[in-house]
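Z., the sequence and structure:
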Amino acid sequence: MSPRTSLLVLLGTALAAGCGAESSSSGTSLGLDLLIDRAVADELGAFQVVVLPKGQSRRCAELQRTCLNQQVNPNEALVIQGPDGKKGRALRFNAGLSGGAQELVVDIPVGRDYVVVIEALSRSTPTHFLGSSCNYLESVSATRNEPLIAASITLAASECDPTITP
């Protein structure tokens, strides 16, 4: 198995108007700062994180229109690992935005040219897609990585089931 590094995800509750500026700090983990509109936070149940290879060949605007699983073959997604050791092509994290920020850690393979898609999922049953954030990631190193500031979640509520099975 290839070396892996952590992707740190910080989730806030403010409205994000754009991509934001890159942080100048660096380290062995990638920081990802994602901002959520308070109105959406009431409907938000979880986040689903997916990492796809060949990032530059993909168009984020297209990937954010609807559920990712309707646009790409789920087997294209890289196997990633959560802090609990669970592995899968998509990892879900319960939303816990009260109090400002939520920290998520995801191990992704060392490599180049990725796109990280974070889908906002409803708390309702069945789960439906609320929107997503799409982020190009040039490279992941086994040593030092510049933090990645996530694009704001683009709202595109859809009744599709966003589930990607492991």
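The beta strands are 4-12, 29-35, 44-53, 80-81, 87-88, 91-94, 102-109, 111-122, 129-140, 154-158. The two ends are 17 Å apart (CA to CA).

Let me know what you think.
H.
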